[in-house]
Amino acid sequence: MRFVDFLIDSALRRANRRVLNFSEAVEDPVLPRPDPRHRYLLYLHIPFCRVLCPFCSFHRVRFGRDRAEPYFESLRREIRVVSEAGYVFDELYVGGGTPTVMPGELAQTLRTVRELHPVQAVSVETNPDAIESDAIRHLHDAGVNRVSVGVQSFDDALLHEMQRLEPYGSGATIARRLKQARGSFDTLNVDMIFNFPHQAEESLDRDLEILVTEIGADQVSWYPLMTAASTRRTLQKDMGRVDYSRERRLYERIVRRMSDAGYRRDSAWCFSRKPGLVDEYIVDHDEYVGLGSGAFSYLDGSVYASTFSINHYVRLVTSGSTGLTLGRVMTERDRMRYYLLMRLFSGSLDLVTAQEKFGVRFQKTLWPELAALRLVRAIRSDGMTIKLTDSGYYLWVMMMREFFSGVSDLRDEMRHHIADEHAHPADRLAN
Ligand code: SF4
Is the minimum distance from the CB of 294 to ligand 1 under 6 angstroms? Predict the structure, then answer.
């Protein structure tokens, strides 16, 4: 790792700890009143997966029908609660876990949102096995525009290490399914991961060829491998030690091949052949409401988190409340930093819009950050817009990796006291 990258990486870890610190959070917060001038995005979290992959630090639990059915029912109830509070949503993003784990329940939930809101765009995450199942028909009939398929790699040895080979099929099978599904939705996104410990550069090159030549994917999101405190040991045991010194080189390889194949960089790690939604919904929307267990919301300068206990979530919603259990007001400086991080992730930040939002204080307050970014030649500005340079794009990959790792550490903390509940599918806490 270049020395400057190492310094930036360490600084980012410290900065994230500050921004994501929930130690002064308020318990059982109430959602703020919606602002009628704002457009909101609705995020729904479906935390169930049939297999728990060793590298994954999302909020996910093993699927069980007896837990998932009441969960979907509660989610629809929670959607009605926030709708009655006056929130209007024009975009919906469903993530997990595996949202398509019960396609019928998901379709019913999407219908509930559509009945209550003028939703223009719907994006749903899924796994490769869903592409050849009824789930795809359900998504199509429910008017889903964008489907994001978690593939991670087409290399069978890596898929085996990830414990995904058996449940989701070989790289060749996944590629064939994706090829067949092309054209079924406005955007078919493929989620990939780079910098697995045993991922050779030749393996990455093969993945790139499959994506751009064989499948011709509409969109590819290339995530750097991210770790969290809870997954670090399992990851190392099952997949090896992560070497960050290779990350920049692998990223540059990806950027070269994707751009040679005619893909545009929509964000530091999302590449598209045509305009469409991107994976990081938080980039496009200043404010969003997250519903479901383990979802986060960002509203009116505050971050909110919903309970990570499925049982607690169902109980809260059944009693007529939302699932929110923690809320933290961010300082103005942290809000500006968050805005800078999210806007520049897409490659550019419009200073006029930033000043409309924060006043002229924006550049004055953030001058140390902006000066440091100029010093390492990560950004350039024409006075109206700040843009990432080529080297700035990689810096932003590191920034977002550290940001999401910080979110995962926060998830770990919030899961800590309900560890038994999530330890085994058969475990049922009577809490
Ligand atoms: S990577 Fe996807 S399928 Fe695997 S555990 Fe995480 S959310 Fe579930």
Answer: no
Name the residue at shortest CA distance from atom 4 of ligand 1. 53
Closest among 38, 72, 64 to 291, alpha carbons compared: 72
Q: How far apart are the first and last CA of the chain?
A: 47
Please state, as a whole number, how many other Cβ atoms lie within 10 Å of the Cβ of residue 52.
15
28: left (phi over 0), alpha (psi -120 to 50) or beta: left
Assess whether the C-beta atom of 227 lies below 6 angstroms from ligand 1: no
Question: Is 45 a pocket residue for ligand 1 (Cβ < 6 Å)?
Answer: no
Structural domain 1-23+332-416, CATH architecture = Orthogonal Bundle (1.10)
Q: Enumerate the CATH 3.80.30.20 domain ranges in the chain, comma separated.
A: 24-284
Ligand 1 midpoint to CA 56 (Å): 6
Q: Where are the beta strands (DSSP E) in 310-369?
A: 324-329, 348-350
Residue 74 neighbours by CB distance under 10 Å: 21
**Which atom of ligand 1 is nearest to 97's Cα?**
7
Check if 126 has its Cβ closer than 6 Å to any atom of ligand 1: no
Measured in whole angstroms, how far is the alpha carbon of residue 259 from the centre of its chain? 23
CATH T-level fold of 24-284: pyruvate-formate lyase- activating enzyme (3.80.30)
The one-letter amino acid at 108: Q
**φ, ψ (nearest 5 deg) of residue 402:** -70, -35
Which of these ranges, 92-106, 269-283, 304-318, 402-416, has the smallest mean pLDDT? 269-283
Ligand 1 center from residue 313 Cα (angstroms)? 21
Q: Which two tokens stand for residue 130?
A: 């869903």
Give the residue, by CA position, lying nearest to ligand 1 atom 2.
Answer: 97
How much is the pTM? 0.90
**In sequence order, what E strands does 341-419 have?**
348-350, 379-381, 385-388
The percentage of residues in the chain with a pLDDT greater than 90, rounded to a whole number, is: 64
Residue nearest to atom 7 of ligand 1 (CA): 97
User: Helices marked H in 85-228 — which ranges?
Assistant: 103-116, 134-141, 156-161, 165-168, 171-181, 201-209
Convert the pLDDT of each residue in 4-18 to its tens digit. 565 555 555 665 556
